[in-house]
Structure formats: C-alpha cells, structure tokens
Amino acid sequence: MAPALPRRTLLQAALLATATPAMSHAVGDSRAVAAALPAPAAWTLRPFDLKDVQVGQGLFTAKRQLMLDHGRGYDVNRLLQVFRANAGLSTGGAVAPGGWEGLDGEANGNLRGHYTGHFLSMLSQAYASTGDQAYADRIRTMLGALTDVRAALRKDPAVLSATGRFGTAAANVRGSYQYVGLPATVLNGSAAITLSAWVRPTHHADWARIFDFGDDNTRYMYLAARNAGGVPRFAITTAGPGAEQGLDGTAALPLDQWSHLAVTISGSTGSLYVNGTRVAQNASMTLNPSSLGTPTNNWLGRSNFDDPVFAGVFDEFNVWSRALTAAEIASLQSSRAAASTAGRGTLASYAFDETTGGVFADASGRGLTATLRRTWGGPSHPGFLAAYPETQFIDLETRTTSDYTKVWAPYYTAHKILRGLLDAYLATDDARALDLASGMCDWMYSRLSKLPDATLQRMWGIFSSGEFGGIVEAIVDLYAFTGRADHLALAKLFDLDRLIDACASNTDTLDGLHANQHIPIFTGLVRLYDATGETRYLTAAKNFWGMVVPHRMFGIGGTSSAEFWKARGIVAGTISDTSAETCCAYNLLKLSRMLFLHEQDPKYMDYYERALYNQVLGSKQDKADAEKPLVTYFIGLTPGHVRDYTPKQGTTCCEGTGMESATKYQDSVYFKKADGSALYVNLYSPTTLTWAEKGVTVTQTTDYPREQGSTLTVGGGSAAFELRLRVPSWATSGFKVTVNGAAVSGTPAAGTYFAVSRTWQSGDTVRVTIPFRARVEKTPDDPGLQTLFYGPVDLVARNSSTSRLQFGLYRNAALSGDLLPSLTPVSGKPLHYTLNGTEFAPFFEGTEDPTHAYFRRTEPKVVLGATDSGVTNAARSDGTTLLDEIWAGAPFATKAALVTRVRSTVNSWVAAGLLSQTDGQQVVTTAQNASYVS
Q1: Which residues touch 832 (CB under 8 Å, ≥6 apart)?
Q2: β-bridge mates for residue 214, sequence order
Q3: pTM of this structure
C-alpha cells in the first residue's frame, strides 16, 4: 500500500510531472482489445470485466435489451450538437435532445453535456457486454467529434459559411457564443446614418441583437431581431433603457427565412424598414450615432446586456454616413449593395464571402476588418472540453451562494464527460478517449491548483453549484493509467474536509444535506485511499455508508426526500411524492461494491441485492421508446403513486444513471479473491462467467427471484478454488447446497457466505436452495408503517386510493413466521398475490399502476391459524402488540412450540395488567385448537 502523502506534497510533486505524450488511435472493424484498469493492491477482491459475465434469460434480460436497443437507435449527433455549437462548428442540422441537455432546459441548460457523458458510458458498457460493433462505431463517432470540438476551442473561432441571400454568408449556431467585432471607428461619429443587414434567424430568442454599438448598458444603439413583443426593435440612448428612443416593427421576423432590415436616421427622424417597407418612424428623435461618441463595443450578434447571442445567418452588413432614400433601400432587396442604386456602405461594407478563417473584409474602402470572437474569450487551457463556455467554472471560484441559473454544478458535468471518456477507453482502447480525459484533468488542475485551500472548501460546500459528483473516482482511475503526480494531486483538491473529518470520526452531520451531491464523494474517497493509503478516507466512507443504510433507507433501497436527507432514523417522515431519487440508489450501489472489494462484509452485498432487485429494476419502465430511456427521477412512496418514467423536461441525471444501470446489471454477480483462491457468488442471476485465469466457466441457471434458488454448472477444465455463496440476511432457514446431488456439510448462517472448497471438474453442478418467506420491514420512526417483502422482493399493493391502506398479516402465518399463507397467489403471475381484494406485485415491474409501497399494519383481533379468538389485540405503550410479541419467537419447530410461546407471552401480559385472565385463556385455547401451515 502506498504511504500517505499530504495534499501540498502532492501538489509540489505535480509541478515536476511531465505531460502525457500525444497518442494515436487505430480504427479497425474487429473488436478492439479493451484497456484494463489496474487493480489497486488494497482490493482483496477483483471484479470481472463485463465481457466476462454474459447475461442469460431472466429478470434482467428484457429491461437490459430495451436499453441496448435505445442505445443502438439513438442518433448520437443529437448529443454532440451542444458540444459542436459551443465550439462554433457545424451541427449538421442535428437537434439537441432538449431538457437538461439543451439551451431551453431547466436553468438555461447549464448542465448540458452531462447526459452525453452518461450516454458514452452506456455505449461503452453495451459494447463491453455484447461485442456488438454498432456500439463501438457510435463511440468512435463521439470521440472523433469531441476531439474536433477540443481542437476548435483551442483556436480562435472560424467562420461557418452558409448559403447566403446572394452568395456566401456567415452562420452563427445557437449556443456558439460567437459574434462579430467591428473596429471602434465604424460609426465615425456620423449624425446621419443608414445601417442595413440581411439576416436569417434560426431561433426566436427575445432581445438577440443584430447589431449593438455602445459602452455599457447606459450608452448604446441596437437593433434587436425580436423584442419582448416578438417584433424587431431599434433603440438609441445615452441614459439607459428608460430613456431609449426607439422604433418597433409590426410583425415577427420569420425563422429560417431571409429578411432585410435597415435603419435610417437623419435630423430628428428615424425609420425602420423590413424587407424594403418602412414599418416604423419616429420624428421626435434627439439622439443619433454621434451622441455615442466612439463606442467601445461595436458588435454584430452580441448585446451590451446579458441577452442571447444572435442565432442565425448574416449576409451583407452595410453602413452609410447618410440616410438612404426609400427607393435606395428598395433597391437593396434584389441585389447586393454594390449592384444597387445605394452602392456599398461608405462607412463599412461586409459581404461575408469568407469561407475560412475568422476575419471579414471591409469593402467600403476604409479597411475596417471585422473579427469573429467568442463572448467569453476562450479556454484557459488547451485541455478544456465542455458543451458550454468556461464561465461557470470561473464564476464558481468567487461564488458564495447557490444559484443554479448562473452556475449549475460545472464539475459534476465535467465528471460525467470524464467518466464517459474513461469508460470508452476501457471498452475500446481508443487512445483519443484517454487523451481527451487526460487533457480535461490537466485543465482542471491548472485552474484548481492555483486556488487557496479555503476557496476550494467554500466551493465544494455550496449546494448544487459546487456539486462535483464522482469526479474524484474518475480522476484516480485516470491516475492509474497515467501515473502522473498532478493527476493524483488534482483528485485531492476536491477534499471537502469538514465532511470527511466528520464521517471519519463517525459524527453524523447528514441532516439537511443534498443526498446525491454527497454519496459519490465517498466512492472517490475509497479510490483515494487506494492511491494514497490514507486510512481517513476509507474510514470516512465506511462510516458514511452506515449512516445511510439502514437509518435513512427506504425498503426498496433508495434514500432522500426531495433530494435531501433528514435526521438519522427518520424514514416514515420522509415519505413523499419526491422520495428516493434514482441517482442515489445508483451511487449507493457503486459505494457498496467498492467497499466490498476492500472488506467482505456481507451487509454490502445484502444492500446491493435489495437496491438492484427493487429500486433500480423498478426505475426502468417495461416498454420501448426511441426518444427516451424511460427511467424515473423520483420514486414517490405515497399512497397511490404512479411512477413517472419521463421526468421533468428529460435528459436528467437519473435518466443518465438509469442508462448506465441497465447495461451493467451483471457487474457484481461474481468477484474473485486477489490471489485467485476463491470465487464469490454475490447475486443469484442467470449468467455465464468466463474465468480465464482458471480456464473454467461457471453458468448460473435460474429464474431468481421467481425461482427460490439457482444451479451453478462448472465448464471448461479443472481448477481448485473455494466457491463462496452468499446467504442473504433474510434467508433465516432452509438454505441448502448440494454438489452433484450430494448435500454439503455445514450450517449456512443468514448474512454470511457459505464456502464449498474443492477441485472443480467440468460438469460439476452446484444446487443452491434459498427458501423465501414473507416478512415486513417497519419504518423506525413509525413501526406501524410497514412494507412487505417476499425473499429479496419488495411487494407493493396496486390500488388507486390515495389514502393509506390498512392490512393485517398474522391471520394465517406459518409456524416458520412466514406471512405468505395470509395472502392468495394469483394464478399465472409469479410473485403476485392478493390480500383483502388488493393485488400485491413486485416493485421491480416497471408499470404505471398506482402503488402503495407502505401500508398501515392493523391487527385488531388476535387471530391464530385463521381462527379468530374474538380477543382484542392489545398493545404496549410503544405500539408492540400481543401478536407482535408472540410471532417474534418464530420460527417454531412444532405447533406445541408455538402454543408454549403463546402461553408464556399471555402470562407475561396478564401479569403486567395488559390482558385479562379470561381473554388470556381464550387466546391460549385458540392457539391450541387452530391449525397452522408448517
């Protein structure tokens, strides 16, 4: 294990690190040899690659195939649209997905780019799992485009030529943040003027400027393609918006059509022309361009306010030092200015005929060359890669409060892109992916390493704006490839010390924190422990896990309410329509998996089974859709809640993680000991493992959890290893193992692993029997509010009522304590049951049925073996009932054992004055006379 290194030592070492050498990439039709992430020495177990575990027919198959089909069919150029636009490249007519991945989405699209990273991870997992070249082709398309985007961002912007009104024109893609800067003397102090432009708007944003000349938002002169009323507006002022002297059009400019606009000022009269027709006149103007002096900002397409950049195409722009006549303006409609009666502009004349470069020639004779620029200048480092400008990252460094309309988790988005690139490299060995990922981290290090520690602590502590997702895990993974000290130093720059220190000391400070902002931090801390050996990191992660599971966990494995945590032990009090954000379950699974690789505590895999087989599977709708992955954001646990598989505006974080989950269901079914001495079977799932080092395969045949067990068959050659089979914590009796039909000695204990050690031969068969039983789980803050489980499966009531349903379950409970006999199975529908006319179904079914995940437990009478004693089921002050105390003694080997338990419990309650002698005897008599399911 590496020795612990202080953060500043790492930073100093980073200064000596050399840059990653340039990498080439090869493209071939055959499946690439995947790159391998070096396994840390701290891992006592090793995971298998996705390609080594093939998914068979079973519970995962249909949902996985739906996502594979979605990944194969979706046009990745739509995802690349926002990246290409940001770099000023052609988007090829692609339409961005919208929602969080588009400019019109929530918070101005400030999270765009994140979903593209998720999609790249999904494609990478799909390719790794299936070997289907269609996924590799899409990955290569995306890597090629992102490489082009980074290259474009490294340079000054270049013209994007398009077909013009008369010849060639200059296009400005929406989202490019590009504009044309004109020399300061363009207006030349003229009192009389005509400004003329051909434009083809491609978006209807209000207040986007065709031109704007001014110094700030006090002194300016502009022409907007569309004002708040949707029509063109010209205005001039020297005293701000309230003093504007303006001209408003009468109709909106049509999108994707050429329009000619001209403004003339002469004396006190200003006129606005649209397509040769005067649409507005103001004869009381006291201002003209000379009133502005020599403006500092002389822009085409950009505003002196915080307005959108003009999206569309510019053809000719001309400026004359006089007011053209109506006839002259009419002549501009059918020909270029040079061929019209007006002639070229005498102050400036730009034809936009250029097809390369970023400058535009002035044909007026004044030599006023115009320049294409970005509103934000350009990247601070050549490794920068994003779907929006660097401005959010810059703003965060001085920000003290959260405002996601200004800054929405830029390092979170950077993480998704970085993770997608690393996954692409792991799947395809395409060096472009590693080069892009390394460049991103070089850029981040160049920014963050200059900041004081206090600034970093403030940044990472800001809700939402400072969220950085699992970026530390991704950076440490990159470091495992590059070995560069600055990459490891970068990972440590994300340390949020107050959170780490609290969790390391096992002090629970989670109340009021945003859940998904913090869960992935701890997976990164475990990876930092792997790289540095600092036990503080691992201890913090282990303690944090224990603060969430089970103390803030719903039965399905999810956590959070409206994305936040409440106090420890508050579960019923957090049930709402916005419970269990799906990303939280995804990230808790990652953390559980990571911790288990270090320490084989079965509780981590018990949780993994719970969350995977319930929330994660249930979050994916069981139907196909070409446009959306159909994954929940929240899973409401209120009565009668209907799951929303098309949440918010789309392309949300949970849809992103949902795509990933559905293409890696098999990633934790099997692990191997680091020394190859043992194979861990963590999940019972129809899969075939290829263990190349041992020269064997292990095939699981099962319909689990519709089948109560699994059969494992060894194939290939002969190999000696210990087979470790997980005994779920809920499997309290009856867990059995046979090898080739013979029972294996030993006593399996719930919540452990049962070991079978031998030299395995091809054809050896292991049968695992795992009897299910129905049980309830109570919320800690309201024990009467319960959820029903059968084995690993959470069963939810399907009922449209929005009131809390009430059920009793002891009525026909078995001697084993199994509550299932109180329910009636539904013929032809495995794991479906009815109780009091209400159907219970597995949570994992992705339907739109109204469900009740929790119900109110009511057992008004003492009923044993379906026989009603007529006695009221008394309760203690803490809510524990007589029946609760009786059945707490289950399982009972015989009826006599149950009767003995009834008698002793009754005697205790009678002695305590909680039950009368007569009622107590009636309960005992009922127990003696009743019949029970064994």
Answers
A1: 825, 826, 839, 840, 841, 842
A2: 220, 297
A3: 0.94
